[in-house]
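User: Is it possible to get a 3D structure for a protein together with its bound compound? The compound here is adenosine-5'-triphosphate. I've pasted both below.
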Amino acid sequence: MIALASNPALQLDGVTRRYGDTAAVDDLSLSVDEGEFFTLVGPSGCGKTTTLRLIAGFEEPTSGSVRFGGRDVAGVPPENRDVGVVFQNYALFPHMTVGENVAYGLNFADPPGGVSDDERVAELLELVDLPGIQKRDPDSLSGGQRQRVAMARALAPGPEVLLLDEPMSALDAKLREQLRVQVREIQQQLDITTVYVTHDQEEALAVSDRVAVLADGTAEQVGTPRDIYHRPTSRFVAEFVGDNNVFDGQVRTVDDTATVAVGDGELSVGLEDWQGTPISTGDRLAFCVRPESMVVGSDSNCLTATVASAEFLGEQTRVYLDWAGRDLMVRTRESLDGTVTVGFDPADAHVVERRD
Ligand code: ATP
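Assistant: Yes, that's possible. Here is the predicted structure of the complex:
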């Protein structure tokens, strides 16, 4: 017998969703593996929620297909898609107890594993680390607790796929950090395929196996958090994810590295990660260097700038520099003032754009 490669748990194939003249999602192709924590991140209006709604079945694509385990789910309503959904607002029923809310998620179906409804509710509240609160009123819970109950409700029927739409956006920063750890733990415990929507790039990097950075309804880059952070493939991703210094210049010479004229200076840029058209002399490039990769006091591959302002962040200080009218950013433990020299290893510079 020939072993066939298994289908991805979830697949979007050239999906477009139009509302009048607006393409909320524009020819988007993605594939999510079994048990993967996959995050859609991007600025407001980039199509994250619409993508999630297309997966859930609350919307149908204008063109393209959504597949679960290889099966096209066009026309299949949300309740038959085997998905659990948690929305931005808690959406718990205020007139029901916590236990009734979770049981509601079963949608009158038998709980998985042959247990009773009550046993299933108890099991799920245990899973989200809120054991024994069946009788409580949703109003008596904190925002983070309510979102965990909403998650228990979404997980009640044992769905194949969990969809989370900005579940933490109403919470304060500290609570978000705690909850995201819990969400990740629950996801790993169940090994459930999860698609998570957030506009918070730090959150996306912290919790995901892979991340898709969306812009204008399409994926700018899909990769592991480390890939997205360290090897952005476009200016948009370089600027959207974390702090970055993006330089524009023209190539003078090309060897293992490119020597790029930027303003009055010349900087060496590594080319190992560049996947686009080969770079040659005369090309115009944009490349980026993370603030933490800028080495203060370096005397090679360096530039001289003046300190404009600084933000003390505790562990490090974020220093804003002015380099001949260009804004740069450096992260350092030192306190800087006046004129400074900063350089970088060419391997820490990544080309994100090339034009003839
Ligand atoms: P946010 O982070 O602000 O929630 P998003 O990335 O989730 O944004 P979507 O809500 O998917 O973005 O919206 C993408 C685009 O599609 C936006 O321009 C939005 O105005 C438009 N859009 C979404 N739903 C509809 C609709 N039902 N009717 C008309 N336009 C819509």
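The chain has a mean pLDDT of 92. The helical segments are 48-56, 98-104, 117-127, 143-155, 173-190, 201-207, 225-230, 235-240.
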